[in-house]
Design brief:
heterodimer, A: 220 residues, mainly alpha, 0% strand, B: 256 residues, alpha/beta, six-stranded mixed sheet, four-stranded antiparallel sheet, 9 helices, 12 strands, binds adenosine-5'-triphosphate, binds magnesium ion
Amino acid sequence: MGYTLNFAAVWRSFDQLLEGLALSLGLAFVSILIGAVIGLLVAFALMAKSGWISRPAATYVTIIRNLPILVLVLFAYFALPQMGVRLGKIESFVAVLSIYSGAYLAEVFRAGLLSIPKGLTEAGLAIGLTPMQIRVSIIVPLMLRNVLPSLSSTVISLFKDTSLAAAIAVPELTFEARKINVESFRVIETWIVASGLYVVTCSILAALMRVAERRLAVPR
Amino acid sequence: MSKLLLEIQGLRKQYGALEVLKGVDCTMREGEVISIIGSSGSGKTTMLRCINMLEDFQAGRIVLDGEEIGYEQSNGTRRRKSEKDIARQRALTGMAFQQFNLFPHMTAAQNVMLGLIKVKKMPRDEARAVAEKWLDRVGLAARADHHPGQLSGGQQQRVAIARAIAMSPRLMLFDEVTSALDPELVGEVLQVIKGLAADGMSMLIVTHEMRFAYEVSSRVIFMNQGVIGEEGDPKEMFANPRTERLAEFLKTSSFN
Ligand SMILES: Nc1ncnc2c1ncn2[C@@H]1O[C@H](COP(=O)(O)OP(=O)(O)OP(=O)(O)O)[C@@H](O)[C@H]1O
Ligand SMILES: [Mg+2]
């Protein structure tokens, strides 16, 4: 092969890639935050004794988990406006990724809740705490510690899913890379650099989660 | 004679079709230390859990300090009190469990402080001072900033007792608090309970430690198949059981 790699064109547009990466991170951050709130509520709903609460929650999780996220992205951006719901590109994608991560995080959180001994709730009740105070001070903090190891892979997965926003022209990392690819014709170089940015970012995220895990670990 | 503290009338509790408490009646005065003994499955734990409303019960009344626990009865109907009312009533009694149930992500001091801050609305530094006082009382002043995972079973149980007693309950409930402990750690926990008895704390103690029940209690209740089989002064009861059942039970119990 007579092809010589030349990264000059990509480096000239590197700022553009970084801006794309920043947007990817922003999308992931906001969506995971909203998704965590949804996931927490849904996880408790899944555990509720009443079927009126647990069944809708289970239905939500099942539907979302059986839909490809790209279908959700396209549905929200193209079909919802037809139904009178008009959202911007970014808002629409954040809404989708939040709802999507909510379902996955709900499952993760539920697993974490299951391993908390019932005796702790009873000890909380016995000193006069209300069920809500027990959730806030005891159950949720312990659940988060339980799930931190599996949370790491979910968070990274969700971050990678932001690349699907390129399908509706949200200027995140993948979209910017494609633009540079088209403008510079440096196909191989562009995608090598974009891939490198994803790998480095995910590794940093994983490292940060490990630090959090160590910091929050219950001393023994 | 001291004031009436606890009155239980016709307490019935069932799990599905299984009737576990079949009409328990008992009264207790302030400062009394009552040991509850009886064979496995006789309903000792269930009785304590009803007093603290960790279990709903189907019939009967539990009155603590003149206040009915858990339910409102007016002209024939019986309604469970609101969750908020029940939470407030639970704080009137303290409970120590067989499995300690300390909050593992909190230090010993934080375990004790939680209820003071959230339930008693005490300022943080005041709660810390109260926690330190009680941890000192159970001999763990030096362990205030240790997490449960860093403490022995006996130490954990003493923290759990401090956590309950710091709420200044009117009545302390102990459910086999030494059963999960290695034999060499039992003494330190029993010592703490004896100290509380000496202070005049009102206590209901479910225990398999007959020697301890004998030494510490002003009265013993023998539970048998969901009712009180016999009750009275420990010295008399242990020397001359009136019922066959108690005689048998005492024969099979160890006295160290
Ligand atoms: N949550 C529950 N569901 C169904 N049955 C229960 C439940 N808890 C207790 N029981 C039953 O109620 C009966 C009384 O139990 P309880 O725990 O009060 O006995 P106990 O006197 O404390 O016994 P032990 O000395 O073994 O602790 C037992 O037959 C037990 O199997
Ligand atoms: Mg028991």
